[in-house]
Structure formats: structure tokens, C-alpha cells
Amino acid sequence: MNYITNIPDPGEKKRLVIIGGGFAGLELAKKINKKQYQVVLIDKNNYYQFQPLFYQVATSGLEPSSISYPHRKSFQKTKNFHFRMCEAELVIPEEKCVRTNIGNIKYDYLAISTGCDTNYFGNDSLKDSTFALKSVSESLLLRNRILLSFEEALSAKDEEELKEILSFVIVGGGATGVELAGALADMKKSILPKDYPETDFSKMEIHLVDASPRLLFAMSENASDGAAKTLEKRGVIIHQEISVKSYEKPFVELSNGTKLRTRNVFWVAGVKPNSLKGLEEAAYNRGRLAINEYNQIQGYDDIFAIGDTALLISDSSPKGHPQVAQVALQMARRLAKNLNHTTDLNKWEKFIYIDKGSLATIGRHAAVADLGKFRFGGWFAWWLWLFIHIVSIVGMRNKVSIFIDWVWSYLNYDVSLRLFIRPKFNKMYTKEE
Ligand SMILES: Cc1cc2nc3c(=O)[nH]c(=O)nc-3n(C[C@H](O)[C@H](O)[C@H](O)COP(=O)(O)OP(=O)(O)OC[C@H]3O[C@@H](n4cnc5c(N)ncnc54)[C@H](O)[C@@H]3O)c2cc1C
Question: Model confidence over 338-375: pLDDT tens digits?
Fold first, then answer.
């Protein structure tokens, strides 16, 4: 077998391989005791991505570097830690190894934290014709698409074409869809008329299409009502309990027969797990990795799953936990504590999720919050949202740069990040050379 040979032998220590350095994997890698374990973190990117702020990169509110952080920098001075940028392809439990695109890696313990990807619910043609928001690179692509629309609008042949260019259809009324719609509405009001004085932005339409009975379905009815009212006040057209049937350029067809003419369809309607193959059938449930309360994957003592890809069905969570950052972080912390304490499973503590509440922002000065019994919206929720995101972001430089961008934007209603940067094609970066 083709093993990666340049990772030192762990000697007396056990090797913990972590696949995926997102919220869950990075937290586990930080909290695990490297005097007990040799840690090998693998990720297909060499950086961590703070997904809740992707929409701000897409709408030119933040730079991609403010919401990303290099894995190697996080662990610069850490002993018994090794990072490899590669893609895990398969787990081979019989050999206790993971197959990756750069070779196989042996493990004593394996933690899978590969998160999720965009779900097109079987309609794969939408994958090529719409824009998703599940990575920093997709946020940049979306940013470019949005900026390109405003440039294209200047050479529209007639009113119909102008409307097609300036119509934005966001599919999915969860937090990301609501935040994206709110940010576009803010741009339309305060930034675009200054940047493009020749364009008639009364023709710009923002549609939010949501199949569920109400926006922000995972939050309280209070929050849903608040979000819908604020968005409508800001000019967003909401299509509730309606799904997208097809998108044959330039028409998006909705389930009620409505056809919307647009060049911009942003797909934020759902996620599907990135579960690795190679495990027994019992390990998979609805595509996710079925775990017990100790994060062990069904049928395995030495393989764990944490974060979005893990599914824990128990009396306290009959449908599993929500796929949010807090669950990922808390699972990682519990697993790290258990592994650090002892490898004797009888002494391990079960994972219990503590719901700290949810927040979603709808644009300038508007957000909704469900914090236990407290449900509120408006200014205070918005400030709280800003504060929590600054605290949660990885890296001091990132905290400072986001703070400066947000203060600047708050005072001037404008940040100067609307750069349309296109990568030049270079064979060096492609697999097919
Ligand atoms: C746009 C958006 C907005 C969101 N907003 C919020 C919010 O406001 N609040 C909230 O709580 N949650 C939010 N979430 C959800 C939250 O980001 C996830 O719940 C969280 O990221 C899950 O963490 P994770 O570690 O399981 O997965 P991730 O953070 O997705 O990390 C997975 C990692 O695995 C790597 N990876 C995947 N497959 C492989 C492979 N085969 N080989 C190697 N590496 C691999 C990826 O590169 C990535 O680094 C949002 C998500 C998105 C997409």
C-alpha cells in the first residue's frame, strides 16, 4: 500500500487522524492533548472557513481573508501535530487507515468531521446553472457574479434585459437566504445608486423563494414574522411555500407556475453530508454517520464522527441535532475531553447538547434572536449578532479587520471591497496537466 511516509512514527503515543478542519475538526485538534496523542489533521483546503459570514464576502462586505485562517498558522508552535492538505477518499477500517489523494494514512483513532455540501435534491442540472454558498471560493464566485450584473446592466439592450440582469433569485429561506436577501437590499438602497448613477435601480428585484411554511423555519414564529416583515419593508419579494421546479436560462420556473426572468439564481436551499465511504452499512443513516452518545460511529470503537456529518439519535434528540456551529464545537469538546481523560470507554461521559440559542441578521440594524425564553428583534439583536460573530471568528488579525470593516461600513454605509478579481487560468493549479 502507498502510505504517506513523511509523518513520523508516533512511538508510544496513539495517532489520532482528524479528517476535516472546520468548526468540529479544528476544535478537536486544538483541544486534544498532544502529549498523549500524535495528531494528523487533513483537509482539502489549507485553511479554516467561517461559514456564517460567507454571505458578507459574497455581498462585498468582507474580504475572504478575514473569514479564513491557515491551518499551519493555528498550529505553528504545536508539537506532535501534522497537517496534510489532501482529500480523504475512503476509510479502510480493516487496515486502520484512510485513503487520500496523496497516499494512505494509518490511524489508531479516527475522527471524521467532513461537514456538508450543497444539496440540489436530485435536480443536478441546477448545480451547473446556479450559484452555491458553501465555501470561500463559492462566496467569491457569487461576489463576482453580483458585481458583474451591475456592470452588465450598463449595456442592457432594453428594459426586459435590464430586469433580467438586475433580478436576483435566492432559493432557500433559512438564515443564509435571509441574510443574503437583506444584504442585497442594503446594497440596492445605499451603495449601488452611488456606484452606478446611470442605472435605474428601481428595476432591481430581489426574490426569496422558500419551500417551507415560513422563513427561518428552525427558529421561532416570532423570528420568522420579524424577518419576513423587515425583508418586505426593504423591498424583498418573498415566495413562501413554493419551490423551484427548473431553471432554463433565463427563466426560473416555480412550483406555482410563476416564471421569473433572471441571470442570477443563488441556491442556498439545503445541505447534504460529506460522509466518507468504506464503513459498514449500519454506520450510515440518511447519508450521515450514525453515532452513539460517545461520538463513536455505529459498529466501530475507534472511529468517531463530529459536527454536521454526524447523526446522533437519542431520547433527547429523536430527530438528531441541528447542523449548526454550536453542535459541532460542543461535540468536538466532549470527544477531546473523553479522549484526554482515558481510552477506557466505561469512564467516558455522554454528549449532551446545550442549546445557546440562534440569531440571524436581516440587514443593517435588523436581526432576530431566539435565546431560550427571550425572543426579540431589531437593533439590540443586531448589535448582539455583530458582537458574537467578532468573538467567534478565528485569529486576532481577522477580528480586528472585521471590526474595522464593520465600523467603516456602519459610519459610511459603504466599504470599498467591490473588486471583480478573476483568476487567470493556469495549468499549474489543475489536476489534468
Ligand atoms: C452559508 C452558511 C451560513 C451558516 N451560518 C451559520 C450560523 O449563522 N450559525 C451556525 O451555528 N451555523 C451556521 N452554518 C452552519 C455551520 O457553518 C456548520 O454547522 C458548521 O460549519 C459545521 O462544522 P463541521 O466541522 O461539521 O463542518 P465544516 O465546518 O463544514 O468543516 C468541514 C471541513 O472538512 C473539509 N473536508 C470535507 N470533505 C473532506 C475530505 N473528503 N477530505 C478532506 N477534507 C474534507 C472541508 O474542507 C472543511 O474544512 C452556516 C453554514 C453555511 C454554509
Answer: 999 987 878 899 999 999 999 999 988 899 999 988 99
Q: 323 CB less than 6 Å from ligand 1?
A: yes
Q: Is 329 in the pocket of ligand 1 (CB under 6 A)?
A: no
Burial of 194 (0-12, 13-18, 19+ CB in 10 A): exposed
Q: How confident is the model at residue 129 (pLDDT cuts 50, 70, 90)?
A: very high
What is the residue whose three cell numbers read 447538547? 353
> Does ligand 1 have an atom closer than 6 angstroms to the CB of 167?
no
Q: Is 22 in the pocket of ligand 1 (CB under 6 A)?
A: yes
Q: Which atom of ligand 1 is nearest to the CA of 134?
A: 53
Q: Which of 19, 31, 275, 324 is the pocket-test mutation for ligand 1 (most atoms within 8 Å of CB)?
A: 324
Q: Give the strand pairing for 88-92 and 97-100.
A: antiparallel
**Of 245, 247, 241, the residue nearest 255 (C-alpha):** 245
The CA distance from 21 to 48, in Å, is 6
Cut 0.90: pTM above it: yes
The pLDDT tens digits of the residues spanning 45-74 come to: 999 999 999 999 999 999 999 999 999 999
Are residues 21 and 28 in contact, defined by beta-carbon separation less than 8 angstroms? no
Q: 214: how many CB neighbours lie within 10 A of its CB?
A: 18
Nearest CA to ligand 1 atom 26: 307
In whole angstroms, what is the distance from residue 359 CA to residue 182 CA? 14
Distance 51 CA to ligand 1 centre (A): 6
Residue pair 208/167 in contact by the 8 Å Cβ criterion: no
Closest CA to 120 of 109, 111, 129, 112: 129
- Secondary-structure breakdown of the chain: helix, strand, coil percentages, each rounded to the nearest 5: 35, 25, 40
Q: Which atom of ligand 1 is nearest to the CA of 324?
A: 19
Dist. CA 165–CA 250, nearest whole Å: 10
Biggest alpha carbon–alpha carbon distance for the chain: 73
Please name which of 36, 140, 16, 169 lies closest in space to residue 421, comparing C-alpha atoms.
140
- State the distance from the centre of ligand 1 to the C-alpha of 113, rounded, in angstroms: 9
Return the closest-CA partner of residue 105 out of 117, 95, 114: 95
